[in-house]
Amino acid sequence: MEDLIDDDPHETDVYAPVREAGYRFILFDTVQGIARITLNRPSANVLSVEMLEEVNGALESLEYAREVKLLVVAATGKYFSAGFELNDHIGDRAYLMLEGFHRVFDNLSRLDKPTLAVVAGAALGAGSILAAGCDMCLAASSARFGHPEVKAGVFNPVAAALLPRLIGRRRAYELLLGGAALPAAEAERIGLISRAVPDEKLEAEAGALIQRFQESSAPVMQLLRRAVAGGLDLPLGDAIRHGEDVYLNQLMTTEDVEEGLKAVMAKRKPAWKDR
Questions:
Q1: Which helix (H) or strand (E) holds 230?
Q2: Which of 17, 71, 217, 250 has the smallest count of CB within 10 Å of its CB?
Q3: Which tens digits make up the pLDDT trace of 149-202?
Q4: How far is CA 112 from the centre of its chain?
Q5: Which contiguous run of DSSP H or E holds residue 181?
Q6: What is the residue extent of each domain of the chain?
Q7: 8 Å CB contact between 140 and 121
């Protein structure tokens, strides 16, 4: 929340994608199989109703983009995001705010593409759960994660539902009820993010991970993500059967699975066709 943030001297622009027409508060592009949504609303990337609408528009445009191997969510400036626009908690805009944020997570769950958040600064409130809710999250050591909403007498419903699933109910209670921010190293330790890296190495580490996706097959990445995500809330046996169904009835129908197996047997790099 905008009025609950404090100053953070760290400022890094991890990516500088172009702004596609129709977007005011985000940057959005797709290059070489990598889609990027970059929050770009100075000075703290506060998530307004209008900004959430743009994020949802970008996510929905990717649904049938079969060439996309990875979606990267990043931010310009010294904050990943300080959370919701304070004025959007009031009156009719509160419903629009919550509905828009809920829709972001509906869209992320439906998206076959793996998602990676790259966090160079503070991620608070809705910004924290947006980053943690991606499939993977790399953060600079100086980044902080937290939910200060309780200090203003409100809470984030998505965080209340998702955090216990990510870090367990005891840690979730402590984080949400206590209102304190965690350093990136602690966020990694409790499983809120994938990995904390030194500030000066964040761009290189993110770039190396992104390159591995660029060198992969788009349908293989999408179907593997589908196999994992589709089984998360199922009993183990049902989750295994779901994975087997994706493997036998979807993965094995692609041209890339044949190419990948042939390449391994021939001890050469695969020439993916992305189909």
A1: helix 218-231
A2: 250
A3: 999 999 999 999 999 999 999 999 999 999 999 999 999 999 999 999 999 999
A4: 13
A5: strand 181-183
A6: 2-214, 218-266
A7: yes
